[in-house]
Design goal:
This protein is of the alpha+beta class. It has one domain: Naphthalene 1,2-dioxygenase Alpha Subunit, Chain A, domain 1. It has 4 helices and 9 strands, in the order E-E-H-H-E-E-E-E-E-E-E-H-H. It has helices at 35-42, 48-51, 151-170, 191-203, and strands at 22-25, 29-31, 69-72, 75-78, 81-85, 94-104, 107-114, 119-131, 134-143. The termini are close together. 36% of the residues are buried. Bound molecules: fe (ii) ion.
Length: 220
């Protein structure tokens, strides 16, 4: 993080104004969970095959190839991660390249690219914390294809996805996000989540996180 952590500028979501894209505002969704837990779940590439088997992922293809996360300009961004997935609930599975960006303490972005078709499906995902155990999820969903499709189609799809996530994020214990990097995260596939915890630690965010941070374990 360039050795310093400062509040970032307002997240920029280029698809919103790009005329090649159609953007839909997802329905608001309230979760009984701490905001950082909700964001980390969004950033978890490995949960697709399990939590979203049949909607986004496929449990027969759970392996995530090695990838890295980089600090670029003012935020973390992952490599393009190839995932066997259905990007948009269309039922069409294939290799989709996922890129995650951490834009603010409770705001992230996901871009899914099908290199064969040129189709891009993007999301801006932000979580409004109400208190330590209650959050509202807001999302913008964009695609550069199927432009005549009714907004309800993509809203319904997002509702399916988030209802699959709800029992997972609401059932996590501890409810707070542990910022100790030795806790819970061990696999290379967790690198985006690890970057997120580092980011919160550097910013000094304690809301919704484990405040007992051992600074010696936070990567410099
Ligand atoms: Fe999910």
């Amino acid at each position: 993080m360039n050795g310093s952590a400062e509040a970032t500028s307002l997240p920029y979501y280029e698809e919103f104004t790009d005329k090649a894209f159609k953007t839909v505002t997802a329905d608001r969704f309230v979760l009984k969970a701490a905001a950082p837990r909700v964001v980390e779940n969004f950033l978890d590439v490995s949960h697709l095959a399990f939590v979203h088997n049949g909607s986004l992922g496929d449990s027969k293809y759970p392996l995530i190839p090695n990838y890295h996360v980089h600090w670029r300009d003012d935020h973390y961004v992952s490599d393009e991660i190839p995932v066997y997935a259905d990007a948009d609930g269309s039922g069409q599975y294939g290799t989709i390249y996922y890129t995650y960006e951490i834009l603010a303490p409770t705001t992230a972005r996901l871009k899914k690219v099908n290199r064969e078709t040129g189709q891009i499906f993007s999301m801006l995902f932000t979580v409004v914390p109400h208190h330590e155990r209650s959050s509202t999820v807001l999302a913008l969903i964009s695609r550069n294809y199927d432009l005549d499709q009714a907004d309800e189609y993509y809203k319904d799809f997002q509702n399916v996805v988030i209802m699959e996530d709800a029992p997972v994020v609401e059932g996590q214990r501890p409810e707070e996000l542990p910022l100790d990097l030795q806790a819970e995260l061990h696999l290379p596939a967790d690198r985006v989540a690890i970057a997120y915890r580092k980011y919160l630690s550097k910013l000094g965010v304690v809301f919704g996180s484990d405040t007992a941070i051992d600074s010696t374990k936070v990567a410099k």
